[in-house]
Amino acid sequence: MRPLSLLFAGFLGCLACSADPVVAPSPDAVPDTSTDAPSAKDSSGDAPSDAGTCKLVKPYSSKNVGCNQCAEAKCCAEINGCLGDPACDDTYVNCILACALLPDDAGDAGLSLCMNQCAIDSPKGKTEYDTAIGCADTKCKTECQ
Q1: Closest CA to 77 of 105, 54, 101
Q2: 42-73 residue pLDDT tens
Q3: pTM of this structure
């Protein structure tokens, strides 16, 4: 089980994770109808980086600066998506935190049942949480060990 101290305790949403200014075309502009327009993805196949434009609303890790830097650079939108939604940050995260505090005699089966109930009670929150954690686990595996 992932250490729960790594993520969430009550956060605000990301107000503007990435915003490009809108520029009106000049009256002489000719629409580009070429089919070889650049892709919205960068050469690595990932979505364009929004590093420098998105800030985590709260630290991802309570103790690991390198993990926070990576999470902000590579998973900011995903993490803030959970942090900014009460279904994820309040309902689901608080529920799984409460599961982690079950008495020791509940054992793994009790923990599993409790966490399954959290997912049933807040499916949207679980999806957002899994997306945030999955991103950091994939893209920041080394930094967030």
Answers
A1: 54
A2: 334 444 454 458 999 999 998 999 999 999 99
A3: 0.62
Q: Out of 30-44, 60-74, 92-106, which region has the weakest mean confidence (pLDDT)? A: 30-44
Question: Would residue 14 be called left, alpha or beta, if left means φ above 0 and alpha means ψ between -120 and 50 degrees?
Answer: beta
Closest-CA residue to 69 (of 52, 84, 81): 52
Residue 44, judged by CB atoms within 10 A of its CB (0-12, 13-18, 19+), counts as exposed
- What is the Cβ-side half-sphere exposure of residue 108, based on CA atoms within 13 angstroms? 1
Q: Is-contact 97 4, C-beta < 8 A?
A: yes
What is the distance between the alpha carbons of residues 122 and 1, in angstroms, rounded to a whole number?
Answer: 19
Angle, nearest 10°, between helix axes 93-100 and 107-121?
A: 170
Strand positions, DSSP E, the chain: none
